[in-house]
Amino acid sequence: MSPPADPSGLPRAELEALVMELFAELAELKKITAAQRDEIARLKGLKGRPTIKPSGMENATEPKRGSGKGGKLRRRGKVNPRVAPISEVLRVAPPEGSKFKGYETYQVQDIVLNVRVVSYRRERWLTPQGETIIAPLPDGTRGHFGPELRRFVLMQYHQGQVTVERLVAQLQAIGIAISKRQVMRLLIDGQDDFLAETRDVLRAGLQSGSWITVDDTGARYRGANAVCTQIGNDNFAWFGTTGSKSRVNFLSLLRAGHTDYTINEAALDYMREHDLVAALVDRLATHQQRHFANETAWAAHLEQLGIADLQVTPNPVRVATEGALWGAVSAQGFLCEAVIVSDDAGQFNVGKHALCWIHAERLVHRLETFTDKQHAAQQHVRGLIWWYYADLKAYRHDPTPRRRSEMRARFDRIFLRRTGFAMLDRLLKRLHANKAELLVVLDRPEIPLHTNGSENDIRCQVTKRAVSGGTQTSTGRDCRDAFLGLAKTCRKLGIAFWDYLGDRLGVIGAAIVPPLPNIIRCREKPA
After folding, report:
1. What is the pLDDT of residues 475-511, one digit of tens each?
2. Cα(147)–Cα(501) distance, rounded to whole angstroms?
3. pLDDT of res. 468
4. 73: pLDDT strictly greater than 60
5. What is the CB-side half-sphere exposure of residue 442 using CA atoms within 13 A?
6. Rounded CA gap, 41 and 51, in Å?
């Protein structure tokens, strides 16, 4: 690629495209260089790049568990079966003269997997009006497959992470006549009720929760790279796969299925905080139309006000769109006073925002040192951060105004120190600039100090990507996200996913499971 003769004369759009292209080439060159460096080291018999282990700050700052008698740790109790046991007497032929001493109980768990094929003879009647009436199939039957089979397929594929090919092989091995195409239909066709419930789960979590944690990971959709975003807390988990990880994308997801754009006080405050020109803010605020049904209506409004054609910094279309989306989130009653805890990715920095301490400490942990003095300085700072983190965890259980002020002052002493290690000092200065977001917990002790919950939740998406690749249709993408989110939500609510599927699919004798959004709202209510 030859450089332009005069870059200063290029339009802004072409400059931005050129910069993005250069960034992509730079990232690719870094990958090639790293691979070549490793190969050269291997040929020379040298050690490759060191593998940096996780710092372990969270586990190290947990209080030690009490020991049982003799100083030995108590073992975890056995998991009791959820099925009532059947009593069966096993007899033995004793020698003559033996005395009966009762019974010794020994419990064995087993599973019965039988194929049941029913040939229904459906009555047909012809009414006097000439209409034909046929007896309906049992509830839960779809096509030629019953609800128990559908439950097994959904359970294996989503919670068991079994591929479609292996699932087909399992079913055929036990005697089910089924093809790969039929299994795919069982997975994605007619799942509107599940899609609606996972949407309502997100709405309930955003309306009633005092905090959420967020994270994202790569995904594949229609052969292209995509992004899967996780939103959740202790009571729910939700996933959404889209083509972008921008802030506009994140705010769109926070609308939880709504498509509107709203200009209200929340939207206008957002625009002012993000330096949108005051005249443009006034133009949006004084216009009679304040609510827009979809993206098309909003884009037409920006065009009508002359905002879409402006070439200034910051981009007025982007900031105004983000503000209108945030206004829509606020208008729906989502995230009212709730805190968003993230790993410092820019797209998540909206509303009341807090940062993950694990990611902050990880920057110090991964800092490369070259001398013993630098290593000693790094370890000393890590020790101070670990000590401070442990005290933050204790503060959450017993917050007081005095301890709050002490923790703020102590934060400054740790992150304003100068160690003589230039890279470490710059990093500490950078972390100190995030003081307000790292110390949100002092005013809101109910929020977590990390995003480990989101990272644990999103691992199922990473596993699904590894074993099953990507999705090819929007329905398949939405069903994959919905069922993985529902499975995680059931686990957090103490509900067996097997029971949940049985109730929703109409399996005879299945346990009754109330709507998940109702359970979330009840659990989120303050005591």
Report:
1. 999 999 999 999 999 999 999 999 999 999 999 889 9
2. 9
3. 87
4. no
5. 19
6. 15
- Cis status, amide bond into 314, omega within 30 of 0: yes
pTM across the whole model: 0.84
Lookup: tokens for 412: 């400054």
Q: CA-CA distance, 452 to 28, in Å (whole number)?
A: 30
- The residue written with tokens 């509303």 in the block is 351
Beta-bridge mates of residue 167: none
Q: In whole angstroms, what is the distance from residue 446 CA to residue 99 CA?
A: 63
Distance between CA atoms of 115 and 174, rounded to whole angstroms?
A: 7
The full DSSP string for 359-412 is HHHHHHHT----SHHHHHHHHHHHHHHHHHHHHHHHHHHS--HHHHHHHHHHHH
- What is the number of other CB atoms lying within 10 angstroms of the CB of residue 369? 15
Closest CA relative to residue 348, chosen from 210, 229, 220, 208: 229
Ramachandran quadrant class, 108 (left: phi over 0; alpha: psi -120 to 50; beta: rest): beta
Query: Per the structure block, which two tokens stand in for 507?
Result: 């399996």
Among candidates 478, 517, 205, which has minimal Cα distance to 332? 205
Q: How far apart are CA 287 and CA 284, in angstroms?
A: 6
* Residue 526 pLDDT grade (very low, low, confident, very high; cuts 50, 70, 90): low
Can you tell me the distance from the alpha carbon of 195 to that of 318, in angstroms, rounded to the nearest whole number? 30
Average pLDDT, the chain: 90
Say whether 415 sits in a helix, a strand or coil: helix
Distance CA 156, CA 162 (A): 6
Burial category of 6 from C-beta neighbours within 10 Å (exposed 0-12, middle 13-18, buried 19 and up)? exposed
